[in-house]
Automatic annotation (TrEMBL):
Belongs to the HAM1 NTPase family. The keyword Hydrolase applies. Signal peptide: none annotated. It comes from Haloplanus ruber. This is Non-canonical purine NTP pyrophosphatase. Gene3D superfamilies: 3.90.950.10. Its EC number is 3.6.1.-. It is an enzyme of class 3 (hydrolase). Pfam families: Ham1p_like. Transmembrane segments: none annotated. GO terms for molecular function: hydrolase activity. Keywords: Hydrolase. InterPro entries: ITPase-like_fam (IPR029001), RdgB/HAM1 (IPR002637).
Length: 209
């Protein structure tokens, strides 16, 4: 059984589009999110903490919105910006800073941990492309050698006024090729989204595990 660590049922539905529905369960576990300028160390720490809690294979998902005109803000602080500013204000700030289209990218990092080593890499953190994840070690619990494998996905787009009734989070204000994520059906969104692209890589690798 694979434990997908999230409080968001929408994310679980997305991962089940890529994996056998019965093989994935939602694990509502509130791991500590460290302060970091990139997503990778946050996901790595979360996966290790979740594995210690569950004692079973886990996947932690950390995603962020990186706005060009705001030097990558909110990035790892995307959820905090949503809670404090709201998605419409973030979109407006991006467009005002850019004095035009608020160009941005969504990035997602999936971190997988099952307690075992990865034969393809001697490093405690291994990306899907076999390169070690730089600066991803930050674990005061002393489990920095607990192996974690990362899978990444990204999608470019721009921030707009809210459109559409589907999805969650920033989906109504993130437009990709003329359509917001909230206007897309689940299948179309999965095919192009940052999380969908990371999940596709993970789903290709996971059966071999």
């Amino acid at each position: 059984m694979l434990n997908y660590v999230t409080t968001n049922a929408g994310k679980v539905r997305e991962v089940r589009e890529y994996l056998d529905d019965g093989a994935v369960t939602q694990l509502d576990f509130d791991y500590a999110e460290i302060q970091a300028p990139t997503l990778e160390p946050i996901a790595v720490r979360g996966a290790r903490e979740a594995y210690r809690h569950a004692g079973e294979p886990v996947v932690v998902d950390d995603a962020g919105l990186f706005v060009d005109a705001l030097d990558g803000f909110p990035g790892p602080y995307t959820a905090y910006a949503e809670e404090t500013l709201g998605i419409e204000r973030v979109s407006r700030l991006a467009r005002e800073a850019a004095e035009g289209p608020g160009r941005a990218a969504f990035r997602c990092v999936l971190a997988y941990c099952d307690g075992d080593d990865f034969a393809a890499s001697p490093d405690p953190v291994d990306r899907g492309d076999r390169a070690a994840a730089a600066a991803a070690e930050n674990d005061p619990e002393g489990d920095a050698d607990l192996p974690v494998k990362l899978f990444e996905g990204a999608v470019r787009g721009r921030l707009v006024d809210p459109r559409g009734d589907g999805g969650f989070g920033y989906d109504p204000v993130f437009e990709h090729e003329g359509t917001t994520f909230a206007e897309m059906g689940p299948a179309k969104k999965n095919a192009v989204s940052h999380r969908g692209r990371a999940l596709e890589k993970f789903a290709e690798w996971y059966p071999s595990r």
